[in-house]
Structure formats: C-alpha cells, structure tokens
Amino acid sequence: MRTTIDRSGRVVVPKELRDRVGLVPGEVEITVSGNALVLEPVTIDVLVEVDGRLLLPGGGPELSTDDIRELRLGDQR
Asked: Residue 14 and residue 27: Cα distance in Å, rounded?
C-alpha cells in the first residue's frame, strides 16, 4: 500500500493498516530496521473492563484463526 510524505515529513498511515496492527491516536515508537522505519504503539499499561472482560483501550490487531492457533500452540508444533 502506498502513501506519501509531505514537505514537513508527515506520513498518513492508512486506516486499514492502523487497524490491522492496532495503532491508535497517541504516541508511537519509531525505530530503524535496515532501510525501513518501524512504527509500534507505545506499550499501554492500562486495561479497561468491558462486559466483564479486560481489554486494551482502542482495541488491538485483528487476529486470524491461524494467528490464534499459533499463539495457543507456540513451540508445541
């Protein structure tokens, strides 16, 4: 997915990508990896209770069935 950098160095991260990785308005950590920039949300230590469940504010990345299976099985494969 392509986007542009304006003269001030600002980049708009498309909504689809923000939703996919859980980026929400606020601080992000930017690091360099090879010739790429990596944006990561700043770790949030606060959880919110919704309907008896603890959730991260703003949601998080959407997980596929394969993602969940990998998280559950880990190194057992």
From this structure: 17
Rounded to 5°, angle at Cα 66 from 47 and 43: 25
- Number of other CB atoms surrounding residue 39 within 10 Å: 14
* Three-state SS at 22: coil
The reported pTM is 0.48
10-residue mean pLDDT profile of the chain (77 residues): values are 92 90 85 91 74 78 84 73
| Secondary-structure breakdown of the chain: helix, strand, coil percentages, each rounded to the nearest 5 | 25, 25, 50
Position 47 scores a pLDDT of 79
d(CA 43, CA 65): 24
